[in-house]
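Inverse folding, one chain.
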């Protein structure tokens, strides 16, 4: 084996001793790591591991400046996923499972990738339910969050959830 692959990329190594394969696959060259100063490491993490490195794609007939302002209000994708689907009092769970009773569960999460991320909303429809109706509620609740932002109650619940983990 001379490389690694994932959904973002494939890395190939020209020369990797068998004894160093595990290290090369996970952390890179020991020479590079040993040569890095604490400031180098801090700069690398600040550059690559933060909200400034997030990418959001919005498709449709929208005003880019308006979308940008709304995204800034949401702060980050974790907050949005918590507001929408973390816990039984979340917007999607409350609407799909309790109120409309057309789904048995919901979830939302972000999959971070090197060159972009995915934001996933999913629901399990009740047996016999119209999938289009479930999808319409997912779209409606996401649109409502983007249009009006999270409420104070949403934020308090999301912050409590994040502190618990």
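Residues assigned per position:
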């Amino acid at each position: 084996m001379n490389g690694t692959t994932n959904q973002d990329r494939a890395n190939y190594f020209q020369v990797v001793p068998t004894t160093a394969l595990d290290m090369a696959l996970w952390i890179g060259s020991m020479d590079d790591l040993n040569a890095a100063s604490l400031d180098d490491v801090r700069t690398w993490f600040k550059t690559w591991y933060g909200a400034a490195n997030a990418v959001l794609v919005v498709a449709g007939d929208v005003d880019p400046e308006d979308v940008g302002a709304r995204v800034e209000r949401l702060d980050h994708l974790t907050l949005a996923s918590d507001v929408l689907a973390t816990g039984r009092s979340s917007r999607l769970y409350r609407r799909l499972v309790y109120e409309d009773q057309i789904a048995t569960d919901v979830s939302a999460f972000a999959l971070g990738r090197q060159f972009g991320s995915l934001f996933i909303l999913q629901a399990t429809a009740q047996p016999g339910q119209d999938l289009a109706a479930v999808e319409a509620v997912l779209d409606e609740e996401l649109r409502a969050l983007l249009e009006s932002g999270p409420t104070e109650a949403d934020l308090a619940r999301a912050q409590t959830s994040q502190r618990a983990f």
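The longest strand covers residues 103-112. Strands lie at 3-5, 10-12, 103-112, 117-125.
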